[in-house]
Design brief:
With 396 residues, the protein is mainly α. The protein has 16 helices and no strands.
């Protein structure tokens, strides 16, 4: 499995940096993502199965966006200006957080050198009472050199799926939620409110991209956004705002993770959906049906039936999917989620735990769907096939 593909590396920056926004970069990326699929006000349509030279050029353009901030950082460090250096690093980090998946998938070693070694070293150095400006400036110059190496990889390497451009857009927009959360941790409600409002006003194109993967995920995110907006407008407490933002982040990340799976597991040499792919979609739909029926049985107190239905997934349906998922190095997540639910479905227990475990299994199904056929998910043929699959409410 590709390192970093799980949960979209959501926790890859544990340090307590106070990020600033990069709204211009966000607009550029979102505009680029939407223009590859149609107008910015509509959901994306079928993503190209084979990445073109034009798509590759877009990757280079997107990846180049954070580069000028490194030069600003280096100049500030050479001027012994800690305030300007901190601002430049924050701006770089916000932009880099939107596009670093390009580097991660092309060269994990280079990604780790830039992210874990160089950027972290600079951030730690700036947090000291007396920064080593000479040493940090040299590190910043090295970061610039490695960044140029990353751009060269994009220029010279094989084209990636154009879905990475949509992924970059979603992840960059998400940086505002992190900035707002950091501001709340500092009890800076004014800053958090301003940044949240910017996220809110720019959310529609991101909503369209998420909806193309899952209408349910898009609706859940919109509902969480509406609830958070009401909290900010109603002058809620800092703790209440933190809770709202955490919920919004969780819902937003579902869409990010679905697109992340589609992008990372896309095969740019594959030009069309196959009948075998459609059969796998049918099997995943069967898993959803069984999970739904099992939960209804559990909620009615029929624990034996609930457990039997859950167990049948692992013994009869999952084996049809396992080889294809294993071929992509991605069979562990769905198996664990199904096993976790099966472990609690056959007996009385805490309702909230059973329900959340069932939800986690359904989320794993959605991710598996994107792993297997994500690059063709918006193809009308695929959508028509999925729409015609049996649903839980029409089965006994």
């Amino acid at each position: 499995m590709l390192v970093g593909s799980s949960a979209d590396m959501a926790a890859r920056r544990p340090r307590s940096a106070r990020w600033v926004a990069a709204p211009v970069v966000a607009l550029v990326l979102l505009g680029g993502a939407c223009s590859s699929h149609g107008s910015s006000g509509s959901a994306p349509v079928s993503a190209p199965a084979v990445a073109s030279a034009e798509v590759k050029t877009k990757e280079v353009a997107n990846l180049s966006l954070p580069r000028p901030y490194i030069d600003k950082l280096t100049a500030a460090l050479k001027a012994n200006d800690v305030s300007a250096a901190t601002a430049a690093l924050e701006a770089y980090d916000a932009a880099w957080g939107g596009v670093d998946a390009y580097v991660n998938v092309r060269s994990l070693s280079l990604y780790q050198k830039m992210q874990t070694d160089l950027e972290t070293h600079i951030a730690d150095g700036l947090s000291k009472p007396s920064p080593d400006y000479v040493g940090l400036a040299a590190t910043s110059e090295t970061l610039g050199q490695r960044y140029d190496d990353a751009i060269a990889l994009s220029k010279n390497g094989p084209a990636l799926s154009p879905l990475f451009d949509d992924l970059a857009a979603l992840r960059l927009v998400r940086s505002d939620l992190r900035i707002a959360t950091a501001a709340l941790n500092d009890n800076n409600v004014a800053k958090a409110t301003a940044v949240f409002n910017r996220f809110h006003s720019g959310f529609q194109p991101a909503y369209d991209v998420i909806k193309a993967r899952s209408s349910g995920a898009a609706t859940d995110t919109q509902n969480a956004l509406d609830e958070a907006a009401a909290k900010f407008a109603g002058k809620a407490s800092v703790d209440e705002l933190k809770t709202s933002l955490a919920t919004l982040m969780t819902k937003y990340n579902v869409g990010v993770n679905l697109l992340n799976a589609a992008a990372r597991y896309a095969d740019t040499t594959k030009t069309s959906i196959t009948d075998r792919d459609l059969l796998r979609l049918g099997s995943l739909a069967d898993v959803e049906v069984q999970l739904g029926k099992s939960l209804v049985a559990w909620q009615s107190g029929d624990y034996t039936r609930a457990g039997t239905l859950a167990s049948a997934i692992g013994t009869t349906i999952y084996p049809r999917l396992q080889p294809a998922l294993a071929d992509k190095g991605s069979d562990g997540g769905l198996k664990k989620a199904l096993d976790d639910y099966s472990a609690v479905a056959g007996a009385a227990g805490e309702a909230a735990k059973v329900s959340s475990t069932n939800d986690a299994a359904l989320t794993a199904v959605a991710l598996a769907r994107q792993v297997l056929v994500g690059q063709f998910w918006t193809d009308p043929k695929v959508q028509s096939f999925v729409a015609g699959l049996p649903k839980a409410d029409v089965l006994t």
